[in-house]
Amino acid sequence: MSRTDGEARNNRWVQAQNSRLETIRGLRRHHVTLVRPSLRRRRGRVAVVTDAACGLPVDPTTGRPVLGVLGEHLEIVPIPVMIDRGHRDQRPEMYPEYSPELSRDLPLALAQGLPVRTSRPAVGRIGQVYQRLHQQGFSAVVSIHLSAHLSGTYDAAVLAAESAPLPVNVVDSHHAGLGLGQAALWAAMQARTGADLEWVTANVNGMVASSRSVFAVPSLEQLRRGGRINRIASVFGSMMRIKPVLELRQGEIAPLELTHSMNRAVSRMQEAAISHVQQIDAADTPRLGVQYCGNLQQAQDLADKLQPHSSEPVPVLELPPALAAHLGLGALGITITKDGHPLLRTPPGYLS
């Protein structure tokens, strides 16, 4: 499959999200009439904030996520990425999260084995986002972030929320990449159709609790450099030529299976994803997505095999730089999410 075919696949996925938004809008219109007419007056008052570890389709010319109409309700906080070129008289070069230069230089740096790291967004930077949303007329924010076990971004958001000029509910997604991106999209869709702060928060918490992410990396070295695993595990894995299948378990990186070839790791990852989907009720609309770093063809082949098990087109998305910096070239991941139609199921305590 060519890159053009892959872009067409992702375009179909974007169209599916637009259809999903219209479905939610219709369900919500019906639900508001039956349950809570006052929600009509709350339309457009909740904003959603996430961070640049989220996996979303990007514009190849700018590197920025394609958000469409949801961009009115969804803000993405950048995560700084730094490349150390080994020059004693120079500090590591810091890149804006969305820049053509980063898209060009990061794969080269990873291939050359240069130290690449990330830094959590500054508390003040997140606070500025909350302040701007308040000035734009929003009355509340749901702030959904990369797993607190993987980054300090969640903690920074909690600190920023304490001095925000509007109510902010900060959610630890326990995920990264597409798992985080899907949660942010889902929240923005809810906000776009007029849901209030408690409603959006309850539904997003439900979604992230039922999502699953599995991934494989050809080497543990990049994870070790980023402090995501310890040195002993990395050295042992390299000596034994282990290609691990990993998962995010309660937000932490945990081994699912140890294999000795990347092909076997990908096969095992595929089996685990399909097994998980088979446990999901079809009414809950299971969705699968694939992310990759430098191995597009392998990712597209995997997506083809997963397509029969997904309720909509399987997107093939490049890992955001904030994650690629830690997973390295050749990384491959699958995310499974579901949402069903929670607008027909009032969150606990919502009407009390």
Automatic annotation (TrEMBL):
<keyword id="KW-0446">Lipid-binding</keyword>
<dbReference type="InterPro" id="IPR050270">
    <property type="entry name" value="DegV_domain_contain"/>
</dbReference>
<dbReference type="Pfam" id="PF02645">
    <property type="entry name" value="DegV"/>
</dbReference>
<dbReference type="GO" id="GO:0008289">
    <property type="term" value="F:lipid binding"/>
</dbReference>
<dbReference type="InterPro" id="IPR043168">
    <property type="entry name" value="DegV_C"/>
</dbReference>
<dbReference type="InterPro" id="IPR003797">
    <property type="entry name" value="DegV"/>
</dbReference>
<protein>
    <submittedName>
        <fullName>DegV family protein</fullName>
    </submittedName>
</protein>
